[in-house]
Amino acid sequence: MVEHLRMTTDVEREQAISAAGFNTFLLPSRLVYIDLLTDSGTSAMSDRQWAGMMLGDEAYAGSENFYHLETAVRRYYGYAHLIPTHQGRGAEHILSQLCIKPGQIVPGNMYFTTTKVHQELAGGRFVDIIIDEAHDPDNEHPFKGNCDLAKLDRVIKEHGADRIAYLSIAATVNMAGGQPISLSNLREVRERCQRHGIRIFLDATRAVENAYFVKEREPGYAAMTLEEILRETCSYTDGCTMSAKKDSLVNIGGFLAINDDELAEQARNMVVIYEGLHTYGGMAGRDMEAMAVGIEESVQLDHMHARIGQVEYLGHKLIEGGVPVVKPIGGHGIFLNASRFLPHVPREQFQAQALSAALYVDSGVRAMERGAVSAGRDHETGKNVFPSLELVRLTIPRRVYTQAHMDVTAESCVNLYENRKSIVGLKFTHEPKYLRFFQARFAPVEGEQVLRT
Q1: End-to-end CA gap in the chain
Q2: Res. 256 pLDDT band, cuts 50 70 90
Q3: Known active-site residue 144
Q4: Residue 203 among the catalytic residues
């Protein structure tokens, strides 16, 4: 189906962003022209998925759709046990509560916001072991999601294997700009961890996109199917958390998949407490059916080629226009380098937050901040954490927008970059305790608008 996109005036957008506290998450969607806030649950489902919705078995226990989904997960991801959840963070919560003891370390290839919070709430501490190239937006390393094996060795030596809860590995790495991990690196990580008895859990949210990059960039995989690469990826891990709202092309849903029988039984018990019965886990039967179909569609090369191709199209348009972006172009979106974009705005005035607000005012395009606001505060000092990457994410929903929408987005970004000195910084007026980027509110450090006219 199609959706009417409403074009707003400059005055309407200025009023809207001010009412939203200059936080694009707080904008009503009816006032957004092109919504690039996230690819989570915003993709368009296929005719086969919609047909599957009509086959929803809404039995409280033992839904037939659960068994269809279980078959799909076992076939394409290869894990033995499926525990459905309402979305990815439900799986993160259960995994963290089961596998992390207070004081333990959780190494990983760069943090993700919700994952890190769940790890911390369980008493763990995240330690970044991603390669240094991932923190350099101009470095064109083809696999910036790789783990630094020397960093991993140091963490094991410093803390001891017994104090490491597990390795948290993402494919692809969201906060680095949608950057993939190579299978050769993951294989080496697996060998290290097996020697020390450390488990690996994969964030498989965009693992199919990662498989596409492996096929395109890693020697020895060009002739393999995405399905084969995905299975090999998962084979180097002990389980995964999954937000099916991305790769699996559904509007809601997720799962925890595990190989260990005992851990899976514990997870089934916990899902009953927090999500729902172990054969629906917070989803309707129709949603599980749509997910089962979506998993099958996600590994089709023509689909993924078109999906990544649209992201690359926008990225190349921005690079041609001189706009600083993270390179190489990642899987699910384009990441503007806000520090390079707004060098006149101090980092203490939240460059990425200001840029995302200004982009909305300029064109009605909604993006999101991935920088200091997302990083939060240091737990010991209470000071803002300023990560090496201060980014604005232009996230492309799957099967939704046309090339013309990408052109409009590129034109707006180029226009803002050419007039970047008209953008002013922001300051907090309201700051939530957890995941502040979702609900925080801001005000310009001078004047009433983030984009001076």
Answers
A1: 38
A2: very high
A3: no
A4: yes
The answer to whether the Cα torsion of 318, 321, 325, 327 is positive or negative is positive
Q: How far apart are CA 130 and CA 128, in angstroms?
A: 6
Q: Answer yes or no: is pLDDT of 25 > 90.
A: yes
Query: For residue 449, is it within any domain?
Result: no
348 and 223 in a single domain? The answer is no
Closest-CA residue to 248 (of 46, 37, 2, 36): 46
Task: Please name the helix (run of DSSP H) or strand (run of DSSP E) that holds residue 126, with its range, or none.
Answer: strand 125-128
* Rounded Cα distance, 177 and 172, in Å: 9
* Average pLDDT value over all residues in the chain: 97
126 and 27 in one domain? no
Catalytic residue chosen out of the listed positions 116, 190, 206, 370 = 370
Q: Are residues 217 and 126 in the same domain?
A: yes
pLDDT score for 268? 98
pLDDT tens readout for residues 195-245: 999 999 999 999 999 999 999 999 999 999 999 999 999 999 999 999 999
Q: Is 370 a catalytic residue?
A: yes
- Note if 433 is an active site residue: no
Of 13, 144, 215, 246, which is the active-site residue?
246
Q: Do 83 and 213 belong together in one domain?
A: yes
Mean pLDDT for the stretch of residues 343-372:
98
Catalytic residue among 38, 85, 113, 409: 113
Does residue 451 lie in a domain region? Answer: no
* Same domain, residue pair 211 and 188: yes
Same-domain check for residues 126 and 272: yes
Cβ distance 338 to 391 under 8 Å?
yes
Q: What is the pLDDT of residues 81-94, one digit of tens each?
A: 999 999 999 999 99
38 within domain boundaries: no
Amino acid identity of 270? Answer: M
Can you give the pLDDT at residue 158? Answer: 97
Q: Which of 243, 276, 298 is the last residue of a domain?
A: 298
Pick the catalytic residue: 35, 39, 203, 287? 203
Same domain, 262 and 116: yes
Residue 228 and residue 161 share a domain: yes
pLDDT of residue 3: 82
From the candidates 22, 66, 79, 112, give the one annotated as an active-site residue.
112
Q: Which domain holds residue 61?
A: 47-298
**β-pairing, 200-203 with 167-170?**
parallel
Confidence of residue 1 (pLDDT cuts 50, 70, 90): confident
Question: To the nearest whole percent, how much of the chain has pLDDT over 70?
Answer: 100
CATH number at residue 266: 3.40.640.10
- Is-catalytic flag, 35? no
105's tokens: 């370390």
Q: Which of 6, 60, 407, 429 is catalytic?
A: 60
Q: Is residue 405 part of a domain?
A: yes
